[in-house]
């Protein structure tokens, strides 16, 4: 509509040309007085007509102009909405990083000076705080700072948006000015912050940053001592989710890019509008206030150039009086924030237990939602669970994993307390776990699989079965994570026994698998989500596959370890009752039956007196009895009448310290066990005041302080107690103990070094360290390295030293070698395990023990373990 009032005639008549679409009939009755007494007649004067005073080029295509105008309005509205959405999303994501960081820093600052006395492995104690030595808090401060600045900027923008269009126009200008800053902030600053925060976690294998420490095994180990001070598991989850939120925040810049595209499109529309109107009309919004339904009602009009209004109720340069009213932006953002806050407050502040609630506080509430998010993300996207490390496995799959480390005061058998222990029952089906359920797009297969190839001979001839040296290695379920050592990398063709570590013990004696993901749930490249039936996956399935292709490899489940049985004293309560002992033995049989183990290894560190030593013996007897009873039900006969049945193995990990092994009836224990794994290492470490050899064969008369223990005296003690040497496996470490700022053996030191995965402990695969020189102490029968410039001494077995121990095994008539633990070894010609087995086994391994593992578990609750019986039938075997 074109409206014109004669210049200089304030009371003169109006002349108008109305576009048919916007004629007066479209106006509400109470709005017509804003224009003219009459819009229905070309002659708007009651007496004498007044012709149109505007003269110029012909009128443009009004329909095209209005279409362009509507497109411009649509883009403008869409841009405004997307800007509000993007700022709201960015604000919430920034809060999602800010709050966890604030909680972590607050907890750190309020507890970093809280000291507790923590027991050490050598029986002494240490006063320390709940946090890592030389804690690095700057990554968390950095992450917090980025989140704080981002939160304030986005909050300020949203507040301005919510103040109405007047303020929004200002904000629009500000937003345009700072739009590139916002984009670079999301893409640049957030990406850098997320990357740095993650890279600083456990940097160089040291968990002294706040995130890395709370997720580490070292923190787990002292959790009991700092109960009520810091809940490391919760703060691990809180910081892990903040990292994921930051990752999303960095990616949210994509929405800003979409807005820029729309702004570019609108700019083209405005140029087209200007082109069509050039020389004719300048288009402005002429808004008429409607009282209908209390809504603002807008009408677009075209006003001749030079006749713009100066303001509400004022005359413009052309004398036109206009009435303007802006539609206010909806204040939905404020309402949304309020609702979210109230819902979160209501759910987080649940009543305490006993008052109709479950005692869940803010941290618990966050933890619950993290768990739900994990399940949803994994089911729909395959993202790994939070609170875990992320590393590429040998199979090329991105896999999560907790940071697994042992404290600096631990023996090598010490490993983490499980975050989410899985407690199996004897009658229940496989426990539900979101990682074991196939994603929604999986289509079940019609094929039921078996882990045993059909051509594997189940019956071994007597010619292939003979006694010999044992080659035994421990393998931890944590190795798949930060160490990135997968079951497929185990040298299965060389080993005779593999001890899968560690299971825990419940207070009633039930054995607990400690890591469902690593043990039974993880899917490797060869695993399918669509297999029919109830199947087991994870490391346990991979170990069964190794058994099927390497028939001389026996896989035992190792139960206990330092953390569970020494730090947590998990064996004390159940072993004190006959019911606990029976339940322990029964659950051993259940785990063998379900998961296909060839036996169990029990690592109780340690019975504290002779009474507990007697309980240990009773436990071994009951376990032996129940395993034999179950084995008697697994008798098979082939077509020629030849029988086969398993003998499930029973072994223990035995201490080297006389104060520990003298509490145990060693002679009687050796009668009921198949072999004993001597932990002849960790003779010296961070618990000592001077440096020393960690796994020496003999005592040193020249420097006695460097050899507080020695293997020769340990063997003498065991043999004197009635243990046959042939049942003893000599333990060899695949790691070294380090001391810093020292002048040599038997001398004081200051510090223990960074270590590979824990302070003061280096994997053999990285030794000797750069610049260090290796030495052989002939009198002590030990090797070590020393760095003259740094004063660092590392005690460990070199390959030549390990081969000398092979000679010692032969001289003493021992049963074989044992290693803690397999992931620390080198994989090339410098491998200790390969070199020792080559010398120990002789040509083609003829001197190694040869006896078949057991593959038939028809009573397993898992289909892929149980269905191996189909292979037995195909080879003509029947169960008696």
UniProtKB/TrEMBL annotation:
Residue span, GH18 domain: 469-843
Database matches in Pfam families: Glyco_hydro_18
**Protein family:** Belongs to the glycosyl hydrolase 18 family. Chitinase class V subfamily.
Family matches, as CDD domains: GH18_chitinase
List keywords of the entry alphabetically.
Carbohydrate metabolism, Chitin degradation, Glycosidase, Hydrolase, Membrane, Polysaccharide degradation, Transmembrane, Transmembrane helix
Q: Which GO terms describe its cellular component?
A: extracellular region
- Transmembrane segment boundaries: 84-105, 141-165, 177-197, 241-265, 329-348
Q: What Gene3D superfamilies does the database record attribute to this sequence?
A: 3.10.50.10, Glycosidases (3.20.20.80)
Q: What is this protein called?
A: chitinase
Compositionally biased intervals (Low complexity): 34-53
Look up the EC number in the record and give it.
Answer: 3.2.1.14
Q: Which reaction does it catalyse?
A: Random endo-hydrolysis of N-acetyl-beta-D-glucosaminide (1->4)-beta-linkages in chitin and chitodextrins
Enumerate the residue ranges of region (Disordered).
28-61
What SMART domains does UniProt report for this protein, alphabetically?
A: Glyco_18
The residues forming the signal peptide are: none
Cite the InterPro entries for this sequence. Answer: Chitinase_II/V-like_cat, Chitinase_insertion_sf, GH, Glyco_hydro18_cat, Glyco_hydro_18_chit_AS, Glycosyl_Hydrlase_18
GO BP terms in the entry: chitin catabolic process; polysaccharide catabolic process
Species assigned in the record = Pyrenophora seminiperda CCB06
Q: Which GO terms describe its molecular function?
A: chitin binding; endochitinase activity
């Amino acid at each position: 509509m074109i409206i014109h009032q004669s210049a200089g005639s304030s009371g003169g008549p109006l002349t108008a040309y109305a576009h048919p679409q916007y004629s007066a009939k479209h106006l509400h009755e109470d709005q017509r007085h804003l224009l003219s007494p009459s819009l229905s007649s070309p002659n708007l004067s009651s007496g004498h007509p007044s012709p149109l005073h505007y003269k110029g080029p012909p009128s443009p295509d009004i329909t095209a102009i209005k279409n362009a105008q509507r497109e411009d309005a649509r883009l403008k509205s869409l841009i405004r909405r997307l800007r509000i959405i993007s700022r709201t999303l960015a604000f919430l994501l920034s809060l999602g990083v800010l709050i966890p960081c604030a909680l972590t820093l607050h907890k750190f600052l309020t507890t970093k000076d809280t000291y507790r006395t923590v027991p050490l492995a050598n029986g002494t104690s240490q006063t320390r705080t709940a946090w890592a030595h030389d804690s690095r808090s700057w990554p968390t401060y950095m992450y917090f700072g980025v989140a704080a600045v981002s939160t304030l900027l986005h909050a300020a923008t949203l507040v301005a948006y919510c103040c109405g269009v007047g303020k929004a126009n200002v904000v629009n200008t500000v937003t345009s000015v700072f739009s590139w800053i916002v984009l670079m902030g999301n893409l640049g600053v957030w990406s850098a912050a997320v990357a740095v925060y993650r890279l600083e976690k456990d940097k160089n294998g040291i968990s002294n940053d706040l995130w890395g420490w709370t997720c580490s095994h070292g923190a787990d180990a002292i959790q009991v001592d700092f109960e009520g001070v810091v809940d490391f598991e919760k703060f691990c989850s809180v910081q892990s989710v903040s990292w994921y939120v930051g990752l999303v925040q960095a990616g949210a810049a994509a929405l800003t890019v979409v807005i820029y595209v729309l702004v570019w499109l609108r700019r083209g529309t405005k140029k087209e509008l200007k082109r069509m109107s050039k020389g004719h009309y300048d288009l402005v919004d002429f808004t008429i206030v409607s009282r209908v339904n209390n809504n603002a009602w807008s009408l677009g009009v075209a006003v001749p150039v030079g006749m713009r209004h100066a303001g509400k109720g004022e005359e413009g340069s052309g004398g036109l009086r206009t009435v303007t009213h802006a539609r206010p932006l909806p204040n939905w953002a404020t309402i949304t924030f309020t609702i979210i806050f109230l819902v979160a407050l209501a759910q987080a502040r649940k009543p305490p237990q006993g008052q109709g609630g479950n005692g869940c506080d803010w941290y618990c509430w966050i933890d619950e939602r993290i768990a739900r998010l994990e399940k949803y993300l994994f089911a729909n996207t395959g993202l790994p669970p939070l609170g875990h490390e992320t590393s590429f496995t040998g199979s090329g799959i991105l896999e999560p994993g907790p940071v697994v480390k042992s404290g600096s005061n631990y023996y090598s058998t010490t490993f983490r307390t499980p975050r989410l222990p899985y407690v199996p029952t004897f009658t229940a089906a496989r426990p539900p776990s979101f990682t074991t359920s196939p994603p929604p797009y999986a289509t079940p297969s019609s094929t039921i699989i078996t882990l045993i190839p059909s051509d594997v001979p189940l019956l071994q001839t007597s010619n292939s079965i003979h006694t010999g040296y044992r080659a035994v290695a421990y393998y931890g379920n944590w190795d798949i994570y930060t160490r990135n050592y997968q079951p497929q990398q185990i040298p299965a063709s060389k080993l005779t026994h593999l001890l899968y570590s560690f299971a825990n013990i419940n207070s009633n004696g039930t054995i607990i698998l400690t890591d469902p993901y690593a043990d039974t749930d993880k899917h490797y490249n060869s695993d399918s989500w669509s297999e029919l039936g109830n199947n087991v996956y994870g490391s346990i399935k991979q170990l069964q596959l190794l058994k099927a292709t390497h028939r001389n490899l026996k896989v035992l489940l190792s139960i206990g370890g330092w953390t569970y049985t020494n730090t947590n004293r998990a064996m004390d309560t159940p072993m004190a009752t006959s019911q606990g002992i029976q339940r322990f033995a029964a659950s051993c049989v259940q785990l063998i039956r379900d998961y296909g183990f060839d036996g169990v290894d029990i690592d109780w560190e340690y019975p504290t007196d002779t009474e507990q030593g007697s309980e240990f013996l009773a436990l071994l007897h009951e376990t032996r009895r129940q395993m034999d009873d179950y084995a008697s039900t697994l008798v098979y006969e082939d077509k020629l009448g030849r029988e086969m049945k398993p003998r499930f193995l029973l072994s223990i990990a035995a201490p080297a310290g006389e104060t520990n092994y003298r509490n145990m009836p060693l002679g009687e224990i050796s009668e009921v066990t198949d072999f004993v794994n001597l932990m002849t290492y960790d003779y010296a470490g961070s618990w000592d005041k001077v440096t020393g050899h960690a796994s020496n064969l003999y005592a040193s008369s020249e420097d006695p302080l460097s050899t507080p223990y020695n293997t020769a005296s340990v063997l003498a003690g065991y043999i004197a107690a009635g243990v046959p040497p042939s049942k003893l496996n000599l333990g060899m470490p695949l790691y070294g103990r380090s001391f810093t700022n020292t002048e040599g053996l038997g001398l004081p030191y200051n510090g223990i070094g960074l270590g590979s995965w824990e302070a003061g402990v280096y994997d053999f695969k990285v030794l000797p360290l750069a610049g260090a020189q290796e030495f052989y102490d002939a009198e002590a029968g030990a090797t070590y390295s020393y760095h003259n410039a740094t004063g660092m001494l590392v005690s460990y077995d070199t390959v030549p030293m390990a081969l000398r121990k092979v000679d010692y095994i032969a001289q003493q008539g021992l049963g074989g070698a044992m290693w803690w633990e397999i992931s620390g070894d080198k994989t090339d010609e410098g491998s200790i395990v390969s070199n020792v087995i080559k010398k120990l086994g002789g040509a083609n391994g003829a001197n190694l023990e040869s006896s078949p593992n057991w593959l038939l578990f028809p009573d397993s609750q898992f289909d892929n373990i149980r269905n191996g019986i189909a292979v037995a039938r195909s080879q003509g075997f029947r169960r008696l």
